[in-house]
Design goal:
This protein is of the alpha+beta class and 557 residues long. The protein has twelve helices and 19 strands. Helix 4 runs antiparallel to helix 5 and helix 4 packs parallel to helix 7.
């Protein structure tokens, strides 16, 4: 049984129970009222009979009593009976005079006994003579001259006047009222059933509509949650902010289809933000702006252009916007990484769109924080903290990758091992601060004068290394000589006085000319470096062909 059916049947059952119970109670009450009225009426008739008996006077006989009973019976409509103190019938409105002597003694009747004892008697009982229920009221009448039925010469001290009415009228009236009340109950029940059916259909229709709306909301919410989860998973898999920008442009228009939007991220300059991705048409705002140009970034809380019935638009947006604009900061761990900017194509950003935007901003903020953290950790893992160039570990990984590529494409790899001559002298003479400064300046020259595809790293201590893919031996020698000359011409001063010239010893090796794997190439370049130092430093030395006899199969330019 459905809930709708229960809702309809419950009031019907309750109404039916109340109606039946009320019918029984009303029937009982009406019968009691009618009986009380008949009892009062019979008491009045009996009292009238008492007066009439006293008016008979001396010498009244049975015929007089019978005639009096006839008159009272016709006038009242009740059956009037006069009985002497012994229970003998003196007169009856329903019997002829000749029939009186054949009537049974009535002294055993309860109403007669009560009247004899206390002057008043009442009873209800079935009369087999007329096959009907009767109500009897008996009253004792003192009559000094009333004769006895057996011996008219003997006077009785009192006479019992009894009035009786059949209860048939009561039963008929009660039956009529039952039928009337029953019809009312049936009509009411039918009306309730009809109303219940109509209400059931209306409720079912309303429930169906509500269910449809709820299913649509659940479906939309499920889609939103699925998109948010999908976006979160994709963002966690991104390795760069640019990759994250592509995810934003693909998924955010699905989450907020009625809004134009953009995401700006913090640049290396902590006070500036640039638009990473936008969707929904041409973005009506600045591609690059300062922190104080966005109210959301200032407040570190979402800001809408129509907030609190105002029209304050962020400076980085076009002031002629017709729809509502909203900016939500991208926060994580107390730091701001960017902002989500939205513009309504209508007049107002809905509550649901606002909730989605806030949820999306939370996930985007966490994703950007993770990207920055991973990038920072990666940079710390692969870069030398003093010079800012790559460290030995990253160089070894890069060298292995370049070897795989060079073997696949049959290309070359140049390797330069660089060592600062007499570096200990700088530390001992000028202190470690100047030694660190020399290392930084050398690293800057190496990085500035190398190609974009070259990998510059600090190999350890005062040693540096360059991995140069797709480079000939001649070009590697030329690059090494350029480094040596540039470093020798560095102008480094201590207390406004120049220090001694910084010189380099450089060893050069080439794959596949000098080695067939990364380890042998490093060893060949290192041996060339030691030869440069042994031959007097401040020079470039090219590795000899290795003892294994590996020779280049390519024309070296």
């Amino acid at each position: 049984m459905t809930i709708t059916t229960k809702l309809v049947l419950a009031p019907i059952i309750v109404l039916l129970g109340v109606g039946v119970t009320s019918a029984f109670m009303l029937d009982s009450y009406l019968q009691s009222v009618l009986k009380d009225r008949i009892k009062e009426e019979l008491s009045g008739i009996a009292a009238s009979a008492m007066v009439a008996v006293n008016a008979l006077g001396q010498g009244a006989d049975i015929a007089s009593f019978d005639a009096l009973a006839d008159r009272l019976g016709k006038s009242s409509g009740a059956r009037i009976t006069f009985v002497d103190r012994e229970g003998a019938v003196l007169g009856d409105s329903e019997l002829l005079l000749e029939e009186l002597r054949q009537v049974n003694n009535l002294k055993s009747r309860p109403e007669i006994q009560s009247a004899i004892r206390g002057g008043y008697g009442f009873s209800e009982r079935y009369s087999a003579t007329v096959d009907s229920e009767f109500m009897y009221v008996a009253t004792r009448v003192t009559s000094k001259y009333a004769p006895n039925q057996q011996d008219p010469a003997v006077t009785s001290r009192f006479v019992i006047a009894r009035a009786a009415l059949p209860l048939t009228n009561i039963n008929q009236a009660a039956a009529g009222m039952r039928w009337g009340y029953g019809l009312i109950i049936i009509a009411s029940f039918s009306g309730v059933v009809l109303l219940g059916l109509v209400a059931s259909r209306l409720i079912a229709k309303a429930i169906k509509n509500e269910r449809t709306i709820l299913e649509q909301r659940v479906s939309a919410r499920t889609k939103e949650m699925s998109l948010l989860q999908n976006m979160s998973g994709l963002l966690n898999a991104c390795t760069t902010v640019d990759e994250a920008g592509k995810i934003f442009m693909q998924l955010l228009p699905q989450l907020l289809p009625e809004l134009r939007g953009a995401i700006s991220v913090k640049k290396s300059n902590r006070n500036r933000f640039s638009v990473l991705a936008s969707w929904g048409g041409e973005w009506p705002g600045a591609e690059d702006f300062k922190t104080n140009e966005c109210w959301a970034l200032r407040k570190k809380h979402h800001h809408t252009s129509q907030e609190q019935e105002t029209n304050v638009i962020c400076e980085h947006l076009n002031e002629t916007l017709k729809g509502e604009a909203m900016c939500v900061p991208l926060l994580a761990q107390g730091e701001t990484f960017g902002a989500l900017h939205l513009i309504s194509n209508t007049s107002h950003v809905s509550d649901n769109e606002f909730k989605i935007a806030v949820s999306a901003a939370e996930q985007i903020g966490l994703a950007l924080a993770n990207l920055h953290l991973r990038n920072d950790l990666r940079q710390q893992a692969i870069r030398d903290p003093l010079t800012g160039i790559y460290n030995r570990r990253y160089m070894m990984e890069t060298l292995q990758q370049e070897f795989s590529r060079a073997k696949r494409l049959h290309s070359t790899i140049g390797l330069l091992m660089i060592d600062l001559d007499h570096f200990k002298r700088f530390n001992d003479t000028f202190g470690h601060d100047i030694g660190d400064l020399v290392l930084k300046r050398v690293a800057r020259v190496l990085r500035k004068n190398s190609r974009a595809e070259d990998t510059v790293c600090r190999f350890g201590g005062e040693e540096f290394c360059l991995v140069c893919p797709d480079m000939s031996l001649e070009n590697a020698q030329y690059l090494a000589e350029k480094f040596r000359k540039r470093i020798r011409n560095l102008d480094i001063r201590v207390n406004h006085k120049p220090i001694d010239a910084v010189t380099l010893s450089i060893g050069v090796a080439l794959f596949p000319h000098h080695a067939h794997d990364a380890e042998l190439l490093l060893k060949s370049a290192d041996e060339a470096l030691y030869r440069a130092k042994a031959e007097g430093r401040d020079r470039v030395v090219v590795s000899l062909v290795n003892k294994a006899g590996v020779k280049s199969q390519f024309l070296l330019i």
